[in-house]
Amino acid sequence: MIKPTDLIGKPAPNFTAPANGNKKLSLDKYKGKKVVLYFYPKDMTPGCTTEAKDFACLYDEFKKNNCVIIGVSKDSPENHDKFIDKYDLPFDLISDDENASICKSYGIWKPKKFLGKEFLGIVRSTFIIDEKGIVVDAISPVKVANHAEIILEKIK
């Protein structure tokens, strides 16, 4: 099984997936820009909301550094629309498919435990992809506190 750090120095796994706003997005469309690709478990939950809002607060700084932010979870595009509207998020959110294809290609679909039950789920993770589409950093698992600030410093 692939680990997130195995991707460092390699081309980022490409994908085309449904996103908010009833659109489909492909990672390869962002060549020429840096990309912060962050994976999170679920829209509207406390940690995921804090992380999204922190990225939103720093969005202009990321943009000044030729960087786009893309969030990925298994939530539907419709849920993403609600999440974006509620918190005024200025970046796109992608929906992974029922097979967790994107999550698996980045090595972050793993066994988790909650309330004594084990299940497969998204390990909160962030990948920094350079202008040529190469993964230059992989942080997994992510601690939400100050995460957006740490990623912004790495982008600069």
Number of helices: 5
SS-based structural class?
alpha/beta
Radius of gyration: 14 Å
Average predicted local confidence, pLDDT:
93
Q: Give the beta-strand count.
A: 9
Percent of sequence in beta strands: 25-35%
CATH superfamily: Glutaredoxin
Spatial strand sequence of the major β-sheet: 5-4-3-8-9
CATH class category = Alpha Beta
N→C terminal distance: 32 Å
Shape, principal axes of CA atoms: globular
What kind of sheet is the major sheet? 5 strands, mixed
Number of domains: 1
Please provide a written account of the structure.
The chain is an alpha/beta fold and about 160 residues long. The chain has one domain (about 5-155): 3-Layer(aba) Sandwich (Glutaredoxin). The chain contains five helices and nine strands; from the N terminus they run E-E-E-H-H-E-H-E-H-E-E-E-E-H. A hairpin with a 3-residue loop joins strand 1 and strand 2 (about 25). The longest helix has 12 residues, at about 45-55.
Describe the structure using short key phrases.
about 160 residues, 9 strands, five-stranded mixed β-sheet, Glutaredoxin, alpha/beta, single chain, two-stranded antiparallel ribbon, 5 helices, globular
In brief:
With 156 residues, the chain is α/β, with parallel strands linked by helices. Helices cover 28% and strands 30% of the residues. The chain has a five-stranded mixed beta sheet with strand order 5-4-3-8-9. A two-stranded antiparallel ribbon has the order 1-2. Strands 6-7 form a two-stranded antiparallel sheet.
Topology:
Layout: E1 16-19, E2 23-26, E3 34-39, H1 46-57, H2 59-64, E4 67-73, H3 77-87, E5 92-95, H4 101-105, E6 109-114, E7 117-122, E8 125-129, E9 135-139, H5 147-155
Parallel strand pairs: 3-4, 4-5
Antiparallel strand pairs: 1-2, 3-8, 6-7, 8-9
